[in-house]
Amino acid sequence: MLDRIDRKILAILQQDARITNLELAERVGLSPAPCLRRVRALEESGIIRQYAALLDPARIGMGLYVIVELRLKEQTREFFERFEKRVLKFPEVTECFLIAGEWDYSLRVIAADLASYQSFLLDRLMFGDSDVASFRTTVIMKKVKSTTSLDVQAIQVKAS
């Protein structure tokens, strides 16, 4: 379990992963060496999975957000595995979820515009002997909330 200081470290790093260890240590009330040990332990445990630069898709010409829900022709392990292998190759797909309910998968897709999305859909996702039986596209008109931060306050605290 994580203690109060670990949670504080995680909250700060989620907002600014480029913070120096010295500044991080000051903000959590530790000296630099123990702070660095805690960060390394969080990395080694897999709690901190990676550090990344988050780009603004609209500023690089990728302003269309789409949710695609789809159903495969068959709901078998073979079809699921084949589809998942295929979808990993599509850079337009930023997230892919196997879901329960009416649809088999939900994809988050980012494209430059409708024409680019249509080309992705018809020429790549549905191309050839695709395992996709049907799909539904939802075009996102406005992104109201988008975050990569998890609520570290909800994490159980171990007794000190």
Supply the key terms:
160 residues, alpha+beta, Arc Repressor Mutant, subunit A, Alpha-Beta Plaits, 2 domains, 4-stranded antiparallel beta sheet, 5 helices
Number of strands: 4
What is the H/E order?
HHHEHEEHE
CATH superfamily of the largest domain: Lrp/AsnC effector binding domain/regulation of amino acid metabolism (RAM) domain
Q: Return the CATH topology of the largest domain.
A: Alpha-Beta Plaits
* Category by helix and strand content: alpha+beta
The whole-angstrom Rg is: 21 Å
Low-confidence stretches: none
What would CATH call the class of the largest domain?
Alpha Beta
> How much helix, percentage-wise, in residues?
25-40%
Number of helices: 5
Quick overview of this protein structure:
With 160 residues, this protein is α+β, with helices and mostly antiparallel strands. Helices cover 35% and strands 19% of the residues.
Task: Describe it.
With 160 residues, the chain is an alpha+beta fold. It has two domains: 4-53, Winged helix-like DNA-binding domain superfamily/Winged helix DNA-binding domain (Arc Repressor Mutant, subunit A, Orthogonal Bundle); 57-139, Lrp/AsnC effector binding domain/regulation of amino acid metabolism (RAM) domain (Alpha-Beta Plaits). The chain contains five helices and four strands. It has a four-stranded antiparallel sheet. It starts with a helix and ends in a 21-residue tail after the last strand. Keywords: DNA-binding, Transcription, Transcription regulation. This is AsnC family transcriptional regulator. GO terms for molecular function: sequence-specific DNA binding.
